[in-house]
Design goal:
By secondary structure, the chain is mainly alpha-helical. It has one domain. Helix content is 30%, strand content 0%. It has 1 helix and no strands. The protein starts with 27 loop residues before the first helix and ends in an 11-residue tail after the last helix.
């Protein structure tokens, strides 16, 4: 927490899944992972760089 008592957050990258009307090739958790992987690639960060996910 910062000295002022306020917590800081940042969005460093965005990602979305390949969009089609229905995806039968992947589960919901797989879709989430796909979007996360793309957001991390966009932000040029790895898992060790992330403090928290909300």
């Amino acid at each position: 927490m910062a000295a002022s008592g306020k917590q800081h957050a940042a969005v460093l990258g965005t990602g979305q899944t390949h969009y089609v009307a229905k995806r039968h090739d992947v589960s919901m958790s797989g879709l989430v992972r796909e979007a996360i992987d793309r957001a991390m690639t966009d932000a040029a960060v790895g898992w060790d760089d992330i403090d928290a996910v909300v």
